[in-house]
Design brief:
elongated, mainly alpha, sequence-specific DNA binding, 2 domains, about 180 residues, about 0% strand, Arc Repressor Mutant, subunit A, DNA-binding, transcription regulation, Myb_dom
Length: about 180
DNA sequence: AAATACCCCAACCGCCGCATA
DNA sequence: CTATGCGGCGGTTGGGGTATT
């Protein structure tokens, strides 16, 4: 009773982690037909996933040009700079970081930078920082390329901090490279 | 050696805007 | 002009792994 997510083959929609098989199907299908309408792509490919799920998987993980892990200090700096300018416009920020996805940047921000800021600046009185939720989406919209006077607490203090190096020992899981090197 | 707490990443959900019928 | 569908975005959650006690 462990390795059976559902089993029900007739289940309409599959959820949860992607299997290597599903990844391969998706990669092969896109390699042959290209990206299209995701919903029909999912069906045509024989995947019991929603179009959204397929798109997310492809964009965030399977695409050949996607880089994962090891955010460099330069990238970190850029992220902080762009976030200072645009707030939580992750997709916008991601466009300036080739190979990085909005999801990854978002995760990076929340897990690393946000915490770092919190530690560096424990100001209880000020509603401080992490205009993460409310404010950002309201104040810095306006337009592409328009520099908004968005000033988070770390402004003026943009400098990368040392990041722990993740060891890539994915023995239990396949990596994207594995998938792409398959015949 | 075992248990607990913490951290990180992948994936899902809901909302919004745009395009097409 | 209105309704429907799709894609995209941001926020949130759950699971797995690692570190610490």
């Amino acid at each position: 009773m462990d390795k059976k997510p559902c089993n029900s083959e007739d289940a309409e929609v599959r959820k949860g982690p992607w299997t290597m098989e599903e990844d391969l199907i998706l990669i092969n299908y896109i390699a042959n037909h290209g990206e299209g309408v995701w919903n029909s792509l999912a069906r045509s490919a024989g995947l019991k996933r929603t179009g959204k799920s397929c798109r997310l998987r492809w964009l965030n993980y399977l695409r050949p040009d996607v880089r994962r892990g090891n955010i460099t200090p330069e990238e970190q700096l850029l992220i902080m700079e762009l976030h200072a300018r645009w707030g939580n416009r992750w997709s916008k920020i991601a466009k300036h970081l080739p190979g990085r996805t909005d999801n990854e940047i978002k995760n990076f921000w929340r897990t690393r930078i946000q915490k770092h800021i919190k530690q560096a600046e424990p100001l209880p009185g000020q509603c401080s920082e992490l205009n993460d939720n409310a404010s950002s989406s309201q104040m810095c919209d306006a337009g592409d390329g328009v520099d908004q006077p968005y000033s988070p607490t770390y402004s003026g203090n943009l400098e990368p901090f040392p990041l722990p190096l993740p060891n890539e020992s994915d023995d239990n899981f396949w990596s994207v490279e594995d998938l792409w090197t398959l015949p």
